[in-house]
Automatic annotation (TrEMBL):
The chain holds residues 191 to 661 of 759 of the full protein. The keyword GTP-binding applies. Residues 73-221 are annotated as: G-domain. The keyword Nucleotide-binding applies. It comes from the Bacteria. It comes from Brevifollis gellanilyticus. Its main location: cytoplasm. This is Translation initiation factor IF-2. GTP binds at residues 79-86, 125-129, 179-182.
Length: 471
């Protein structure tokens, strides 16, 4: 009412209807986006319509098991800010220099490989779970192993939990490195017990999570960290066919004066060679030059290895796939088709998962998973809502809360939801501006509530097929 008075709209009580434009202004002031309301049975909650561009068709090939060979594992470091992700990546890079690797490592191209017992291990050098889930949102699951970095003096922090949930949602192998063990304030026991509390029991405590003690500063435990990664990679049996038509995923791209669009790609399959024609998203190209992470020109790259690639017709997007094809004519033709498709696709609207369509397309005898990212105002409501949601019984739908926390809905939440086809539920929370833009782009549904029973009722209806589909 106070807000309305400020807008020179006078209402007698809170039940009075107001003009749409007035409501819009009030919403804006509080960081909400107003969508035209379509009333559900029993609940007056706003639905959000999403508009996203359909991804262009992918080229699919069959994999022949007997042709597969071991490839380099791809590792991403995640964790709370300042816990030492960058320092550890640098420390690992340095081990190669001291081991006398030719050329030394001078280039920061977004990924690099080190050799441990003559086998390569690839690291993605762009730490941060937003980047990680951003790639997943584009359908690019590049990482095999996530190493959660936790500072020994600080322990598990909010972003550690956030990173963990991003990794869990991606279903990747997880390891933990307790960093800064050189500090007098290091308390390894405390960190291990915190890990145990969040379901990551260390191997030496009878659990199944490898927990390494390291120091990026002194180099303590770095060799052991590499060894453990190599062992985990062996267990995962990561393989690819080096003779198949090459495919690589873009993990970074930029415009370099004199060279045009340049991208760092990780080869996923086949052997990427100089002089090949390729398609990448709607753009085409020819591999004019390949440069390794030491800035040296190379002729070819094997699966699992990163390389800087020059020769794109236009800037590729992170997460797009470079696919080698037979001829330049073929890639140019496909590029034209894809550009045309994406121009048309812009006119087509498509929604990702919404609460309303949970029940759509469930096959007989199957169960669907309703994935949720939950953000609330205070811990009390977080616990209460989680408990109520988990108590909802449905014979068709299982609930999985990918991440829950207190705080506004941020971009990282949206990317997590997008990469995992989840719905974001906010309770007494606002959506950060950047998150709103990303949610629109990614087609992620955000449902905002301010009354607990409305939230629970609607979730119940959604999970039991009582919620009307969006029209
Ligand atoms: P990031 O935000 O996770 O990438 O963290 P950084 O690598 O930037 O490290 C944050 C700070 O912690 C820097 O000042 C580092 O010098 C320091 N740091 C990182 N690793 C260690 C370590 O093993 N021991 C000590 N004493 N300091 C470290």
């Amino acid at each position: 009412i106070a807000d309305l008075i400020n807008l020179k709209v006078f209402v007698a009580n809170a039940d009075k209807a107001i003009e749409l434009e007035v409501a819009e202004k009030v919403c804006e002031k509080h960081g909400f986006r107003l969508e035209r309301e379509k009333r559900e049975k029993g609940a007056g909650v706003h639905k959000v319509e999403e508009v996203i561009v359909e991804p262009v068709a992918q080229i699919v090939e069959e994999v022949e098991e007997e042709k597969l060979e071991l490839r380099a594992p791809i590792i991403t470091f995640m964790g709370h800010v300042d816990h030492g992700k960058t320092s550890l990546l640098d420390a690992i890079r340095k081990t190669q220099v001291t081991h006398g690797e030719a050329g030394g490592i001078t280039q920061h191209i977004g990924a690099y490989s080190v050799f441990h017992n003559d086998r390569p291990i690839t690291f993605i050098d762009t730490p941060g779970h937003a980047a990680f889930s951003g790639m997943r949102a584009r359908g690019a699951n590049v990482t095999d192993i996530v190493v959660l970095i936790i500072a020994a003096d600080d322990g598990i922090m909010p972003q550690t939990r956030e990173a963990l949930n991003h990794a869990k949602a991606a279903d990747v192998q997880l390891m933990v490195a307790i960093n800064k063990c050189d500090l007098p304030a290091a308390n390894i026991l405390r960190v291990k017990s915190q890990l145990q509390d969040i379901g990551l029991a260390p191997v030496d405590w009878g659990g199944d999570i490898e927990v390494m003690e390291v120091s990026a500063k002194t180099g303590l435990g770095i060799d052991n960290l590499l060894e453990t990664m190599a062992l985990q990679a062996e267990v995962l049996e990561l393989k690819a066919d080096p003779k198949a038509p090459a495919r690589a995923t873009v993990i970074e791209s930029s415009m370099v004066p004199g060279r045009g669009p340049v991208a760092t790609v990780i080869c996923r399959q086949g052997t990427l060679k100089v002089g090949q024609a390729f398609i990448c998203g709607p753009h085409w190209g020819k591999t004019k030059a390949l440069m390794n992470d030491r800035g040296q020109p190379i002729k070819e790259v094997k699966p699992g290895m990163p390389v800087e690639l020059v020769g794109f017709s236009d800037m590729p997007r992170v997460g797009d796939e470079v696919v080698i094809m037979d001829s330049e004519r073929a890639v140019k033709k496909l590029s034209e088709e894809r550009l045309e498709e994406s121009r048309q696709a812009k006119l087509v609207t498509r929604r990702r998962v919404t609460m309303e369509d949970l029940f759509a397309n469930i096959e007989e005898g199957q169960k669907k998973v309703f994935k949720v990212v939950l953000k609330t105002d205070v811990h009390g409501s977080l616990e209460a809502i989680t408990k109520c949601l988990e108590e909802i019984e449905s014979n068709k739908i299982n609930l999985r809360i990918l991440h829950s926390d207190v705080g506004p809905i941020n971009e990282s939440d949206v990317l997590l939801a997008s990469g995992s086809d989840a719905v974001i539920i906010g309770f007494n929370q606002k959506v950060e501006n950047k998150a709103l833009t990303t949610a629109r782009r990614e087609g992620v549904q955000i449902k905002l509530y301010s009354i607990i029973y409305e939230l629970i009722d609607q979730a119940k209806e959604a999970m039991t097929g009582m919620l009307d589909p969006l029209t």
